[in-house]
Amino acid sequence: DTPLTTPPNEYIRWRYANQGEDKESLVKVSMQFSDEELKLQKTPFEIQFTGEDGKVKKIKKVVSELVGGRKTNKSKEYEYEVKYAGSTVDSGEYLPLKTLKKMGWEKAIKA
Fold first, then answer.
1. C-alpha 56: how far from its chain's center?
2. Distance (Å, rounded) from C-alpha 89 to C-alpha 81?
3. Which residues contact 72 (CB under 8 A, 6 or more apart)?
4. Phi, psi for 47 (deg, rounded to 5)
């Protein structure tokens, strides 16, 4: 079946059946990561956070997936929940949009 021959209801269910991700936008050429972006995504980035003791700590991690997004109330900027490489569970950590763009995740943000 093609989108032109299926009823609209079935087409919409097919298109968004993968946990709400748009199947058609995932295959667009403009949404495919370039080799340079993939290399950048696999590069460990230094991430700063405040530990329970109140001290600022720095560690290098690689983001493997964007899990969700939210808008912060204070600055009206978006930040995205990330899953780190080697982690089996969601960390519950959020990174700002500008940091993720530097890490090569801009196209995933647009999707």
1. 25
2. 12
3. 78, 79
4. -120, 130
Cβ contact 61:85 at 8 Å? yes
Mean pLDDT of residues grouped by 10 in the chain (111 residues)?
79 80 68 82 85 86 86 81 80 84 84 56
Locus of tokens 């290098």: 60
**For residues 13 and 10, what is the distance between their CA atoms, to the nearest angstrom?**
5
pTM above 0.90, yes or no: no
**Cα first-last separation, the chain:** 25
Alpha helices in the chain (DSSP H): 8-15, 23-26, 35-41, 97-102, 106-110
Q: Quote the DSSP letter at residue 10.
A: H
Question: Which residues partner with 57 through β-bridges?
Answer: 49
Distance CA 2, CA 9 (A): 13
Give the largest Cα separation in the chain, rounded: 61
